[in-house]
Each structure stands twice: as structure tokens, then as C-alpha cells.
């Protein structure tokens, strides 16, 4: 999806008649300032990246929540059936146009289940009766070095600030994107309906309000990577971002650009490390306590906690279960660290009578502590913690307390193969 470059160009053209746009980088300080005003948000999320950069009536710039109004729901959509040339179908001639229409229906259904009320989608009988139209095109569209798989038409113009709002934190907006194109072929031939469903998931996210930016996290449907291997399942980040967006009033101002921001503090927290309550993972048979106030995020293989937010943090601690032996994991991790030019040191000790092997890896920017524990039945538990090099020693008491909190669940569960989960 080469959407970012197109958006940057559109912004440059739109701003050519006025002062240069303010340089801005998403940061946790603005996010926390926003949640202090707007209230807690579903987390983890990438809400700042869903915001639209718009000019305010007073000439300033701001990041604004742009979405469909509640009275526009349910959203009626229409899927334009593709015309598949015989030469393109080739060996996939058994794939019918209706297969691809169904794939888009499934994508809308996935968003529906993720968001719940009040967001709803209904298939319209014709494009003229629909608020959203998805065009399925059986052609290959190359852009730059890659292939375009989908695009929202007029993406850079779909949110418009009309006037000041009723409060300083609101503006009145117009938001009504209408068309998206999904390309169902690549140079090899037709994509599978499953691939097309994944592309449609991404484009529907833009139609719902995610701006021309993308999620900064590679495991999200709304990540901006081009190619035919799109993420097929909505992540917690995807779900929570849209849930947060639709809990906000349209036109809510997230941050005014160019204002003096709270400085990002360089020092780590100097208070004694305190732990929150237990985080349970029955999938892998362990429980752990993360530092109080850190954001805990469930992952496919365990849990991760960050001192900050998932996309901007000072330190992280991750507990994951993995198949294999302690020695095999240590060899792989050590080789990876050395390949990156990091200094690697090995330590061994016991935790509740069980041997633990630790690797300490220090690079030029970050330090990492990796503890590998034999979890039995061909599994290991890996506790990985990292921080900036200059803060690493300050964080090690937090890392150690988390490691000491790791316990087996009373049920005695051990990890199950993915096929059994």
C-alpha cells in the first residue's frame, strides 16, 4: 500500500498556499494528555495514527477524530462484482466473481463482530443506494517498486473541517468517504478470496475513519506494508482503535500541533519497583506480575508489558512460551545478538530450585536481558526485558521482580500445540 507517499504529496499540495506544516511525531505524552481530557481508552491501540491532520478555523493544525456520525448508521455498502478476463483466470477458472464478493462480505462481518453496536453494516441492493462502494478489479496495478492492492478514492480529502465546534476540544466536520478499489490479481494471476478478504479488511478500516496513516505495528490489519501477504485477522490494536474512535464525538481534537509539549523525561522511574496483580496465561500454564502502571498486552505466545504505550515506551518485559530446548534457544538468541554487533554475556543461576540461563546483550542503543527456563514437555519459557542502554541498570530491579513473580498455574497446565488451542 503506497498510500503514505501519496498522502504526503497531497498534504504538501494542500499546504502550499499557507505556512509550512508543523513537524510532528506521535508520542505518548500527547496520548496521555488526550486521555486525561477524554477519559480512558480501550488499550492497546494506535489511536493517534487514526487521527486526521486538518487545518482549524483559526489557521492552526490539529489531529482530529473523523468518523461516520451515529445517525449515518447502519452503513449500507455495495460490492461491485469483478469482471474476470479469461486469460487472467487461467488455471483458477473455477473461482467465480461471487467468491470475491463473498470475501468482502466476510470482511465487513469481521469488522461488525469486532466493533459491535452501534457500528453496523448492511448490503445495499445497488451502488446508488449505498454509502460505501467496493470496486473489485481483476487487474494488476503497479506503483513504484510494488503493487497496489487497494486504495480509498480521494483519501486525502475525505475529512473536512467546516467550522469551530461547541467546545475548544471540538470542531464541526464533514466525513463521507464513498469508494474503495480492491485489486484481485497480481502478476501471477488471481489472488485467492482469502487474500482479497484481507485486503478488504484494510480498506474498510480506512473507510471507517483510519486516516491515510497506518498502524506502526506490523501485526495489525491496518499496518501499511505492501504485498499480497496481508494480515488476515483483526488484532486487539485494530479492534481497540476503532472502538475508541467510535466512542469519541466526530470532530474531537486529539492534539493541536505546534503547541509546547510536555518534555519526554529522560530519567527512568526512581521509585522502588512495585508489581501489579497476577496476569494469568492458561494457554501456556503460567502467571506473572508486571510492574504497576505498565501497559500489559496479550500476544500469541504469552504477554508483554511496556513502560509507556505499545508504540512508544522506555522499557519492556515479555514472557513467552516456545517449543524447543534451553540450549537451542540460547544459541539462536546469542547468535542473533552477536550478528547485531552486541556484547553478549552469559550467566547461570537457580529460581525455586530450577536452573535458569541468562543472556545479557548490550548494543549501542538498547540493552536486553533474556532468561530461559525449562518449562517441561519440550517447552521453554523465555523472559525477555529491554531498555535504553543508559537506563538499563536502573530497570534491572523491575526485570528481576517480574522474573521472580513467574509461577506455574495451580492447574498445572502446560502449553498446547497451536492446533489444539
Q: Which characteristics define this entry?
A:
single chain, alpha+beta, Collagenase (Catalytic Domain), Protein Transport Mog1p, Chain A, 5-stranded mixed β-sheet, 9 helices, 24 strands, globular, disordered N terminus
Overview of the structural elements:
By secondary structure, this protein is α+β, with helices and mostly antiparallel strands. It folds into two domains: 3-256, Collagenase (Catalytic Domain); 275-420, 3-Layer(aba) Sandwich (Protein Transport Mog1p, Chain A). It is built from nine helices and 24 strands. The strands form seven sheets. It has a seven-stranded antiparallel beta sheet with strand order 17-18-19-23-22-21-20, sandwiched between helices. 36% of the residues are buried.
Note the topology.
Elements: H1 3-14, H2 28-38, H3 47-50, E1 52-55, E2 61-64, E3 75-80, H4 86-89, H5 97-115, E4 121-123, E5 132-137, E6 141-143, E7 146-148, E8 150-152, E9 159-164, E10 171-175, E11 179-183, E12 185-186, E13 189-190, H6 193-208, H7 236-247, E14 253-256, E15 275-281, E16 286-291, E17 295-299, E18 302-309, E19 312-323, H8 326-339, E20 343-351, E21 354-362, E22 366-376, E23 379-388, H9 392-405, E24 407-408
Parallel strand pairs: 3-4, 3-5, 5-11
Antiparallel strand pairs: 1-2, 2-14, 6-7, 8-11, 9-10, 12-13, 15-16, 16-24, 17-18, 18-19, 19-23, 20-21, 21-22, 22-23
CATH architecture descriptor name of the largest domain: 3-Layer(aba) Sandwich
Q: Assign the structural class, choosing from mainly alpha, mainly beta, alpha/beta, alpha+beta, or little secondary structure.
A: alpha+beta
Please identify the top-level CATH class of the largest domain: Alpha Beta
Number of helices: 9
CA-to-CA gap between the ends? 33 Å
Profile the largest sheet: 7 strands, antiparallel
Q: What is the spatial order of strands in the main beta sheet? A: 17-18-19-23-22-21-20
Radius of gyration: 24 Å
Number of strands: 24
Shape: globular
Unreliable stretches: 1-18, 412-421
Mean pLDDT: 86
Query: Which oligomeric state applies?
Result: single chain
Helix content: 25-40%
User: What is the CATH H-level superfamily of the largest domain?
Assistant: Collagenase (Catalytic Domain)
Indicate how many domains the architecture comprises: 2
**Percentage of residues in DSSP E strands:** 25-35%
CATH third-tier fold name of the largest domain: Collagenase (Catalytic Domain)
